[in-house]
Amino acid sequence: MKRLLVIVALTALAAGCGGNAPSPTAAGSTTCPKGWAAGWQRLANDVGAPVYCPGWMPYPLDGRIGGNYKNGRWVDEKDKSYLVSFLWVDSDGGVSREVHVNLRGYPGRTDVPICQSQASAGGATVRKEIPCFADEREKRTIGDIEATVYTVNQGIDAWHVLYAWPKDGTLYTISEHVVAPYTYRNVVRNLDRMARRLAVVEPTA
Number of folded domains in the chain? Predict the structure, then answer.
């Protein structure tokens, strides 16, 4: 019976017809869920700037930093830029499925950050600087967020659709990996819903 329920849930995910766990907050809420708030408050305090707490996450993830789906929390000591990553992976029956979401912030700057890339040329390794987010596809306005959509991204955001937007002198991003059980269309729908439910958490220390 348990296996049947899992199959039904995954079928709904692949179809993109709801396939998301109930949100921990009411529809349209912009409040950081109680069970997640402490971690996001600590992050805001660590970077000394507002951060966005996700009020909703694509199934089966939640937004609790350090929770069951933690994939890393990093704060740069120099510029206080941050990355919070959540990941679910399943390979039951030999079929790989993954849900991977990243949230970033770059306090005090709104330009696209630069990443280091390397390639082999003539037997030598050539390194060059490239934008971390590229292949701008469109602009999307979601509430008070005016996001630029990028589909060619570097590092941990590779193979993700990424939304980036400036807010009060800081660049923020959310991204999700395009991989089964979610299609590109599903991922865009998920990111739209995430953007609508983001809650600003101000530093208190």
Answer: 1
